What does this fold into?
Amino acid sequence: MTPANKETRRTVLLSTATHLALGAFGIVFIVPMLWLILASIDAHASWGLEWPHFSFINFRHVLTGSLLHSLWNSVVLSVVSTAIASITGVFAAYALSRRRIPFKTPLLMFILFSSGVPLAIMIIPVYEMFSRYNLLTILPTALFLSVTSLPFEVYLMKNFIDAVPKDLEEAARIEGASTFQVLRKVVVPLAMPGIAAASIFGFVNSWGSLVVPLILINATNQQPAPIAIYTFLTVPKPEYGNIAAYSLIFCVPVFILYSVSSRLFREGFVLGGGVKG
Amino acid sequence: MTVMTSPEGTVAGPDLERLWKTRRDRDRFQWSSLALMTPAFGLLIILFLIPMGYAVYLGLTNLTLVGPDSVKWGFTGLQNLSRLRQDSTFWTSLWVTGGFIGGSIVGVLVAGYWLASLLMRARPWMRIVVGGVVVVSWMMPAVTAGMTWYASTTQGGALGTLIGMRNTNFLDSWPLVIVTLANIWSMTGFSMLVIGAALRNIPSEAIEAAMVENASAWQRFRSIVLPLLRPTMIAVVLLTALLSLANFGLIYIMTQGGPGNATNILPLYSYQQAFSFNNLAYGALIGNVMVLLATVFGVLYVRVAAPRS
It folds into this structure.
């Protein structure tokens, strides 16, 4: 056998092994999803994995009444908390990026630190504070959720604003634009991909949150979709098909938003922009 | 910030010295900066720092959720701390947390690296299909991931059906293993993407040079890939630890900490004490232990991830 021939055989073997291993990985990762997909289109679903009695009845069932209302609550909760975090965040990010601020480094460290620490663990003292002032409703909960995504949003937006060239801003200044005008007309449009990515992060964070609204929202008719999913399980004989269909619908906005943000992130963005790999 | 020292040899009077110290080529502090920062930092102070301080105090009181101690409560000193020391469930919970986080770190790192390096050599269609499946499992909200893992590992679920053990309730038999696997499943996509990006940044010249020198695959990995990936790997480890601690929604859906206390990680035990057993103060104290734990990881993360200046 010629050396070249041996080399090709090795390459073929290696490539086969690679693809076999990847296939195995793919199967392992897809198995847990199978139930979700099959049960959602099965009129007689159970916990088991079986060929579905194909129908869309589950989807029609769960898009009515209180279940639909829970999805609406999720929209309200996530939109409000994202708006609060992104608007307050962009001001802070701008100041941290452009202005001379005393103790800037410690402030940035604090932002980075609190973006890593799960702030939802503050829920017991926050519950105590909210219950004292009768704030166990959806809007204060949105406020708390906005704080849990605020640090990472600020950090992300600061990195994007850092990359916006200063010249345009200075030109606007010379024309007599105020800080607010500079922000609105120059910085925000140019840093839009970063602001969008940060907002998507905030939205997804609030959308998927289960325990925070479970504890901080008292009224049943204000509770968001994750709690509806959780409640499905607490009845003795759950409607398996409905659970699957509803969980799947619940995922759709997240999948769409993540696909959008992955496009925004394509500019070689790694781990908050801070890590140089 | 910067103290300028006058260059040697110049005689600087008091006026000149002041001129030296106020630099004109730098931005000065503007009061409007304060207005820009106040909303965000105000929120962080009111709903993060104050609750954190409040939790420290609450942990040393006898506040309950309902009953007489929910109205008339007060400082009880170190009473809760000694209770914590003798609380065997707390120590179990600490071990369970360690196992959950440790297992997740190993799983997420190994699976993420393995997938990333395999995908680099794979055909495009394979990359799209397998990479896509892994990324979708990462994007899935914890509630849905928990739901589908519950269905797949319970009695008669997909896992049992596929390996011919239909009557085994995997979730009941190996609860901690299953929830850890579910957590790894839902986080591997993230580490795969991050490690993949770092792998692509390794200059191919370095690998080629090593191949010319006849270095084995293992030597290439140990001497070139691993050192270059180290910062990324450390960041992935710390973030996995922090995100696992935050991913209690997944366990909450799957087992609510049970059976027994087999999956009762600290955040869940803290809620259980506060809202199921009505011991708000004691729950807050357990929460403080968790804050301490998260702080250690968080500080390490800042040291790794902060841009060097």
Remarks:
- Residues 267-277 of chain A have pLDDT under 50 and may be disordered.
- Chain A has twelve helices and no strands.
- Residues 3-40 of chain A form the longest helix (38 residues).
